[in-house]
Amino acid sequence: MLQTPEGGLSPMAGEIAAASRPDVKSLAATELAAAFREWGEPAYRLRQLLDGLYRRRATEWGQLTDLPRRLRERLAERFTLQPLALERLQSEPDGATKFLWRLPDGEHIESVLLPANPALYGEGSDRRTLCVSTQVGCGFGCRFCASGLGGLRRNLLPFEIVEQVLAAERWRADQTAEPRPGRLIDNLVIMGMGEPFANYERVLAALRILNAPWGGSIGARRITVSTCGLPHQIRRFAQEPEQFRLAISLHGAADAVRSRIMPVNKRYPLAELLEACREYRRRKGKLLTLEYILIRGVNDAPDQAARLARIARELRAKVNLIPYNPVPGLAWERPEPDRQKAFLHRIRAAGAAATLRREKGASIQAACGQLRLRAETEP
Ligand code: SAH
User: Is the pTM of this model over 0.85?
Assistant: First the structure.
């Protein structure tokens, strides 16, 4: 496979995996406009196409009945229009819903729809959040994570990221009697399978489509990208014009602890990561979120709480503590509830903002990669 030293695929690999025709939902409106100009089509035709794709969420060209047949044929010659197929659905008692999607080439990815909950990322507390994948598998091999167990298979193309939102909206429309129900998803966390910053250009292209008024129309401040900590990409992200949010998967507040949990820390140790975070802060003036999975006997000691609080205060970041969700085939366990709370209170006592994810939600919220794992290991 075409792997770069840091576990990402080379930019070519995704294009090789893709069909020779790009999918229409991988392209920005300006790119589509060029094709429409070339064909001598008026601007309102493009608006009709975008409305069909993103408002009515068409899955076949034939559904775009307001476009002339000849234009539909031209579009079909130039682009594919491929929906994701829902292969499995898992609903949890706490209201979370997990989707296992089949991609056009037969690979599988997951998205998780989180019920309205206290504001963890983004602003609102009554938001419905979709957790979205960016790669099939992952090349970084974090020791707690189900997604990385089989390594990296490939990068997702922009439309495969965009489609996770559209397909979830379609699923919900099928559930309701209303012909055009209101929008389901108003918050995104790019925290599913894969490392978004190892698929940077395609992820950004997808986020721009999801953010655009002609596309997904989800506000940039309601989109949070989570990274295992690639400093050069964090710097790059800080330069983007959009006000996307950033979360860092920290999970260890000293190099020895973090390297044991996340091999990426050996390549990019904490000092380098935190310097890039400072730059993000300086440029964006935005709140960062630090994700910290609590793992019994690995990263839950008082000295880690003290160091974590210091890091969070310095970055003016919010800490999000997540009790480790056991993964079949991986060794660790979560600390007892009292020890989780003690860790939380230590951080707060040291003057940093922190939340502890409630146990029930954690069972599904944290479990990205596990549904695919189960689907692929079951007969
Ligand atoms: N590569 C990106 C996105 C992957 S999601 C990143 O590293 O941020 C990573 C997040 O998923 C973690 O920060 C954690 O919040 C959650 N997660 C994954 N596996 C988990 C597990 N077994 N238990 C608890 N949380 C988990």
Answer: yes
Q: Are residues 140 and 104 in the same domain?
A: yes
- Domain limits for position 225: 85-377
In a domain, 166, yes or no: yes
- The answer to whether residues 167 and 215 belong to one domain is yes
* pLDDT means over runs of 10, the chain (379 residues): 43 49 97 97 98 97 97 98 96 83 97 72 65 97 91 98 97 82 87 97 98 97 96 98 96 98 98 98 91 97 98 96 89 95 98 82 49 54
Q: How many angstroms from the chain centroid is the CA of residue 192?
A: 5
CA distances 4 to 8, 10, 11, 195, 197, Å, are: 5, 6, 9, 14, 13
Q: Which residue among 224, 234, 246, 291 has the greatest number of ligand 1 atoms within 8 angstroms of its CB, and so is best to mutate?
A: 291
20 in a domain, yes or no?
Answer: no
CB 25, CB 158: distance < 8 Å = yes
| Protein residue whose Cα sits closest to atom 21 of ligand 1 | 325
Asked whether residue 42 falls in the same domain as residue 185, the answer is no
Indicate which residue's Cα is closest to atom 11 of ligand 1: 366
Is 333 a known active-site residue? no
Instruction: Give me the amino acid identity at 217.
Output: S
Q: Are 210 and 179 part of one and the same domain?
A: yes
Is 110 labeled as catalytic in the residue annotation? yes
| CA 122 – ligand 1 centroid, Å | 17
